[in-house]
Amino acid sequence: MSRSDTGHVPVFLDQVLGVFADGRGSAANYLDGTFGRGGHARAVLERFPGCRLWAFDQDEDAIRFGQAEFKAEVEAGRARFFKANCADIDEVAAAEGFPAGFDLMLLDLGVSSPQLDEAHRGFSFYHDGPLDMRMNRAGGVTAADIVNTWDEQELARVFIELGEVQRPFRVARAIAHDRETKPFETTRELAGLIERVDGWRKKGSHPATRYFMGLRLAVNDELGALERVLPVLIGRLADKGRLAVITFHSLEDRIVKNVFKAHLDRGTLVNKKVIKPTDDDVRANPRARSAKLRVFQKGVP
Ligand SMILES: C[S@@+](CC[C@H](N)C(=O)[O-])C[C@H]1O[C@@H](n2cnc3c(N)ncnc32)[C@H](O)[C@@H]1O
């Protein structure tokens, strides 16, 4: 299985393997909190033959894919899969008997390429589908619930705070107005309204991009989950274990930076400065454009 056969090209793969190799790569317990299509997980298992994988994803499609694609490793007792939000790791660990500490941990946040590309998941305005956007389809609110029921001010807040849209008020008002006649059901309906109201201001970027990002973060409470999970993961690192976190949003990166800083009595920052993609990284994988990587090592030297 090559990196792109899975439909998802992993970001910062060489950098992640590098920080793991300098840490406790061999004979390690590796926790992948955002398995996706297993691009990082596959590379980590290949690079460190003594390593065992504990994989989380809240999306059942990702877990089904992993169980099939890593069948040999599952049967050999080298890989285990958990369909859960990694913020709930303590509950899963209590039932499953986890190792005392993990040597390597990775969070590669956001959505996978298959999630974006499959119209029925409703993440993308390029593919018409139901306004869903849930990573975990077992429950919770959909994007349609938010768009059709949250009041105009709450919608504007989501677009400003999570989507980082500067002036979303006309769009929020138009949504509140139009849904009175007919609720929004599809990604194209919402994208069409945003195109009509905002027009194409920035060259190259669809006007709905940031609105959709804000909605996706709200639907999945991605910032809340990140704030909850980071201290828990740091608590579960073995001595000299390393936690690498890849973010794609400035608010996520700020949370990672602040939580790592707040735990400097329990560990160190592996890189003083945040790692950003090189021009080659972005050429090879445009998704890497806004990516940032930070790494925390447990134990004070
Ligand atoms: C960017 S993809 C990961 C890609 C993966 N590293 C690879 O190389 O294939 C992010 C994945 O993490 C999952 N995810 C995001 N936040 C999560 C969370 N808090 N808990 C569990 N899974 C999460 C998403 O469902 C998605 O499948």
Query: What is the H level of CATH, i.e. the homologous superfamily of the largest domain?
Result: Vaccinia Virus protein VP39
Residue-averaged pLDDT: 92
Which CATH architecture of the largest domain?
A: 3-Layer(aba) Sandwich
Strand coverage percent: 5-15%
| CATH uppermost class of the largest domain | Alpha Beta
Whole-number total of structural domains: 2
User: Could you give the distance between the termini?
Assistant: 39 Å
**Largest sheet strand order:** 3-2-1-4-5-7-6
Order of helices and strands: HEHEHHEHEHHHHHHHEHEHE
Number of helices: 14
> What is the share of helical residues?
40-55%
Major sheet details: 7 strands, mixed
Structural class: alpha/beta
> Rg from C-alpha positions?
20 Å
Overall shape: globular
Task: List each distinct ligand once.
Answer: S-adenosylmethionine
- Write down the CATH topology of the largest domain: Rossmann fold
Beta strand count: 7
Unreliable runs: none
Polypeptide structure, described:
- This protein is α/β, with parallel strands linked by helices and 301 residues long.
- The protein has two domains: 13-114 and 222-298, Vaccinia Virus protein VP39 (Rossmann fold), CATH 3.40.50; 137-219, DNA polymerase, domain 1, CATH 1.10.150.
- It is 45% helix and 14% strand.
- The chain contains 14 helices and seven strands.
- The protein has helices at residues 13-22, 39-47, 60-69, 71-75, 89-96, 113-117, 143-149, 152-162, 169-181, 187-198, 209-219, 222-235, 250-262, 279-284, and strands spanning 29-32, 52-57, 79-83, 102-108, 237-247, 267-269, 292-298.
- It has a seven-stranded mixed beta sheet, with helices on both faces.
- Helix 9 crosses helix 10 (187-198) and helix 12 packs parallel to helix 13.
- The model has no long low-confidence stretch (mean pLDDT 92).
- The structure holds S-adenosylmethionine.
- The site of S-adenosylmethionine has 24 residues, from helix 2 and strand 2.
